[in-house]
Amino acid sequence: MALPIANQIRRLRFEHGEMSQSELAERIGMTRQTVAAIEAGKYSPSLEAAFRIAHVFGVGLDQVFQWSPG
Amino acid sequence: MSFREKSAWITLMTVLACFGAYFVELFGGFAGGNHHFGGLQSIHLLLVSVLALAVLQIALTAIAALTTPKDGRGPADERERMIQLRSQSLGYHVLMVLAVGLFAPAFFGHRGVEMANFALLAVVISALTVSVAQIVMFRRGA
Description:
- The complex is a heterodimer of chains A (70) and B (142).
- Chain A has helices at 9-15, 21-28, 32-39, 47-57, and strands at residues 5-7, 65-67.
- Chain A has 70 residues and is mostly helical.
- Chain A has a single domain (5-59), classed as lambda repressor-like DNA-binding domains (434 Repressor (Amino-terminal Domain)).
- In chain A, strands 1-2 form a two-stranded antiparallel sheet.
- In chain A, helix 2 (21-28) crosses helix 3.
- The longest helix of chain A is centred in the last third of the chain and has 11 residues, at 47-57.
- The radius of gyration of chain A is 11 Å and the shape is globular.
- The model of chain A has no long low-confidence stretch (mean pLDDT 92).
- The model of chain B has no long low-confidence stretch (mean pLDDT 89).
- Chain B has one domain.
- Chain B is built from 5 helices and no strands.
- The radius of gyration of chain B is 17 Å and the shape is globular.
- The A-B interface holds A 22, 25-26, 29-34, 36-37, 40, 42-43, 45-46, 49 and B 1-2, 5, 71-72, 74, 77-80, 138, 140-142.
Protein backbone atom coordinates (compact mmCIF):
# COMPACT_ATOMS: atom_id res chain seq x y z
CA MET A 1 0.00 0.00 0.00
CA ALA A 2 1.44 3.39 -1.04
CA LEU A 3 2.05 5.83 1.79
CA PRO A 4 0.68 9.40 1.55
CA ILE A 5 4.20 10.86 1.55
CA ALA A 6 5.98 11.53 -1.73
CA ASN A 7 9.71 12.11 -1.87
CA GLN A 8 12.34 13.53 -4.18
CA ILE A 9 15.23 11.35 -3.04
CA ARG A 10 15.89 9.76 -6.41
CA ARG A 11 16.09 13.17 -8.12
CA LEU A 12 18.22 14.63 -5.33
CA ARG A 13 20.62 11.70 -5.51
CA PHE A 14 20.94 12.22 -9.25
CA GLU A 15 21.59 15.94 -8.79
CA HIS A 16 24.28 15.22 -6.20
CA GLY A 17 26.74 13.44 -8.42
CA GLU A 18 24.51 10.41 -9.01
CA MET A 19 24.92 9.41 -5.40
CA SER A 20 24.18 5.72 -4.92
CA GLN A 21 21.62 4.38 -2.46
CA SER A 22 24.47 2.69 -0.60
CA GLU A 23 26.35 5.97 -0.21
CA LEU A 24 23.25 7.78 1.05
CA ALA A 25 22.53 4.88 3.39
CA GLU A 26 26.03 5.03 4.83
CA ARG A 27 25.81 8.79 5.36
CA ILE A 28 22.52 8.59 7.27
CA GLY A 29 23.39 5.41 9.18
CA MET A 30 20.88 3.07 7.53
CA THR A 31 20.95 0.05 5.28
CA ARG A 32 20.66 0.33 1.49
CA GLN A 33 17.44 -1.70 1.67
CA THR A 34 15.88 0.91 3.96
CA VAL A 35 16.88 3.77 1.66
CA ALA A 36 15.36 1.83 -1.25
CA ALA A 37 12.13 1.32 0.75
CA ILE A 38 11.94 5.03 1.63
CA GLU A 39 12.62 6.04 -1.97
CA ALA A 40 9.92 3.66 -3.24
CA GLY A 41 7.40 5.11 -0.78
CA LYS A 42 7.07 1.81 1.09
CA TYR A 43 8.44 3.06 4.40
CA SER A 44 8.07 6.41 6.16
CA PRO A 45 11.28 7.28 7.99
CA SER A 46 11.40 8.77 11.47
CA LEU A 47 11.61 12.54 11.73
CA GLU A 48 15.28 12.27 12.68
CA ALA A 49 16.07 10.11 9.63
CA ALA A 50 14.14 12.51 7.40
CA PHE A 51 16.23 15.42 8.71
CA ARG A 52 19.41 13.42 8.16
CA ILE A 53 18.46 12.82 4.52
CA ALA A 54 17.64 16.51 3.98
CA HIS A 55 20.93 17.46 5.65
CA VAL A 56 22.93 15.24 3.29
CA PHE A 57 21.41 17.05 0.30
CA GLY A 58 21.66 20.48 1.96
CA VAL A 59 17.96 21.26 1.49
CA GLY A 60 14.90 21.73 3.68
CA LEU A 61 12.71 18.85 4.75
CA ASP A 62 9.85 20.01 2.50
CA GLN A 63 12.11 19.76 -0.53
CA VAL A 64 12.67 16.09 0.18
CA PHE A 65 9.26 14.96 1.45
CA GLN A 66 5.79 16.13 0.48
CA TRP A 67 2.42 15.20 1.97
CA SER A 68 0.21 13.83 -0.81
CA PRO A 69 -3.01 12.29 0.57
CA GLY A 70 -5.24 10.21 -1.68
CA MET B 1 19.10 -9.18 0.58
CA SER B 2 20.15 -7.79 3.96
CA PHE B 3 21.84 -9.94 6.58
CA ARG B 4 18.78 -9.75 8.83
CA GLU B 5 16.45 -10.97 6.08
CA LYS B 6 18.82 -13.86 5.42
CA SER B 7 18.77 -14.59 9.17
CA ALA B 8 14.97 -14.74 9.10
CA TRP B 9 15.11 -17.22 6.20
CA ILE B 10 17.74 -19.30 8.01
CA THR B 11 15.61 -19.43 11.17
CA LEU B 12 12.51 -20.40 9.19
CA MET B 13 14.23 -23.17 7.25
CA THR B 14 16.26 -24.64 10.11
CA VAL B 15 13.37 -24.62 12.61
CA LEU B 16 11.08 -26.16 10.01
CA ALA B 17 13.62 -28.85 9.16
CA CYS B 18 14.77 -29.76 12.69
CA PHE B 19 11.54 -29.45 14.64
CA GLY B 20 9.48 -30.61 11.66
CA ALA B 21 11.42 -33.87 11.72
CA TYR B 22 11.13 -34.00 15.52
CA PHE B 23 7.35 -33.62 15.60
CA VAL B 24 6.75 -35.90 12.60
CA GLU B 25 8.72 -38.60 14.41
CA LEU B 26 7.04 -37.86 17.74
CA PHE B 27 3.46 -37.61 16.53
CA GLY B 28 3.87 -40.32 13.89
CA GLY B 29 2.70 -43.02 16.26
CA PHE B 30 -0.21 -40.86 17.40
CA ALA B 31 -1.82 -41.05 13.96
CA GLY B 32 -1.27 -44.78 13.99
CA GLY B 33 -3.40 -45.22 17.06
CA ASN B 34 -0.79 -44.85 19.78
CA HIS B 35 -2.40 -42.15 21.88
CA HIS B 36 0.44 -41.94 24.35
CA PHE B 37 3.72 -40.67 23.03
CA GLY B 38 6.65 -38.57 24.08
CA GLY B 39 7.97 -40.59 26.95
CA LEU B 40 11.41 -39.92 28.34
CA GLN B 41 12.89 -41.52 25.21
CA SER B 42 11.72 -38.42 23.31
CA ILE B 43 14.28 -36.37 25.28
CA HIS B 44 17.03 -38.02 23.22
CA LEU B 45 15.27 -37.08 20.00
CA LEU B 46 14.79 -33.54 21.30
CA LEU B 47 18.49 -33.17 22.16
CA VAL B 48 19.49 -34.34 18.66
CA SER B 49 17.04 -31.86 17.09
CA VAL B 50 18.26 -28.93 19.20
CA LEU B 51 21.90 -29.79 18.48
CA ALA B 52 21.20 -30.05 14.74
CA LEU B 53 19.36 -26.72 14.88
CA ALA B 54 22.28 -25.02 16.64
CA VAL B 55 24.91 -26.41 14.25
CA LEU B 56 22.86 -25.55 11.15
CA GLN B 57 22.08 -22.04 12.37
CA ILE B 58 25.69 -21.26 13.29
CA ALA B 59 27.01 -22.59 9.96
CA LEU B 60 24.38 -20.90 7.77
CA THR B 61 24.60 -17.60 9.67
CA ALA B 62 28.38 -17.59 9.16
CA ILE B 63 27.89 -18.22 5.43
CA ALA B 64 25.24 -15.47 5.29
CA ALA B 65 27.59 -13.00 7.00
CA LEU B 66 30.40 -13.83 4.58
CA THR B 67 28.22 -13.52 1.48
CA THR B 68 26.40 -10.31 2.45
CA PRO B 69 27.90 -7.04 1.20
CA LYS B 70 29.13 -4.63 3.87
CA ASP B 71 26.15 -2.29 3.46
CA GLY B 72 23.75 -5.12 4.28
CA ARG B 73 25.27 -6.27 7.56
CA GLY B 74 25.68 -3.11 9.62
CA PRO B 75 23.79 -2.54 12.86
CA ALA B 76 20.01 -2.80 12.57
CA ASP B 77 18.47 0.50 11.52
CA GLU B 78 15.07 1.90 12.53
CA ARG B 79 13.13 0.02 9.82
CA GLU B 80 14.73 -3.29 10.69
CA ARG B 81 14.11 -2.72 14.41
CA MET B 82 10.46 -1.90 13.63
CA ILE B 83 10.14 -5.13 11.62
CA GLN B 84 11.64 -7.10 14.50
CA LEU B 85 9.28 -5.49 17.03
CA ARG B 86 6.17 -6.03 14.90
CA SER B 87 7.02 -9.64 14.13
CA GLN B 88 7.83 -10.42 17.77
CA SER B 89 4.55 -8.83 18.83
CA LEU B 90 2.68 -11.05 16.37
CA GLY B 91 4.60 -14.11 17.57
CA TYR B 92 3.73 -13.24 21.18
CA HIS B 93 0.01 -13.12 20.41
CA VAL B 94 0.18 -16.43 18.54
CA LEU B 95 1.96 -17.96 21.54
CA MET B 96 -0.71 -16.63 23.93
CA VAL B 97 -3.51 -18.18 21.87
CA LEU B 98 -1.66 -21.50 21.61
CA ALA B 99 -0.88 -21.45 25.36
CA VAL B 100 -4.59 -21.19 26.11
CA GLY B 101 -5.15 -23.95 23.55
CA LEU B 102 -2.98 -26.27 25.68
CA PHE B 103 -6.07 -26.92 27.78
CA ALA B 104 -7.37 -29.07 24.91
CA PRO B 105 -4.74 -31.86 25.06
CA ALA B 106 -4.87 -31.69 28.87
CA PHE B 107 -8.64 -32.25 28.67
CA PHE B 108 -8.02 -35.38 26.56
CA GLY B 109 -5.78 -36.87 29.20
CA HIS B 110 -2.26 -35.94 28.10
CA ARG B 111 0.16 -35.38 30.96
CA GLY B 112 3.81 -34.74 31.75
CA VAL B 113 6.25 -35.06 28.83
CA GLU B 114 3.37 -35.15 26.35
CA MET B 115 2.13 -31.77 27.57
CA ALA B 116 5.70 -30.46 27.48
CA ASN B 117 5.86 -31.47 23.82
CA PHE B 118 2.59 -29.66 23.06
CA ALA B 119 4.03 -26.56 24.78
CA LEU B 120 7.21 -26.94 22.70
CA LEU B 121 5.07 -27.16 19.55
CA ALA B 122 3.40 -23.87 20.55
CA VAL B 123 6.82 -22.22 20.96
CA VAL B 124 7.98 -23.55 17.58
CA ILE B 125 4.84 -22.31 15.81
CA SER B 126 5.33 -18.92 17.45
CA ALA B 127 8.97 -18.79 16.30
CA LEU B 128 7.94 -19.73 12.76
CA THR B 129 5.31 -16.97 12.83
CA VAL B 130 7.98 -14.43 13.79
CA SER B 131 10.23 -15.54 10.93
CA VAL B 132 7.46 -15.56 8.32
CA ALA B 133 6.24 -12.11 9.45
CA GLN B 134 9.80 -10.75 9.20
CA ILE B 135 10.29 -12.17 5.70
CA VAL B 136 6.95 -10.76 4.51
CA MET B 137 7.75 -7.29 5.91
CA PHE B 138 11.29 -7.32 4.53
CA ARG B 139 9.91 -8.30 1.09
CA ARG B 140 7.19 -5.63 1.18
CA GLY B 141 9.57 -2.89 2.29
CA ALA B 142 8.12 -2.49 5.78
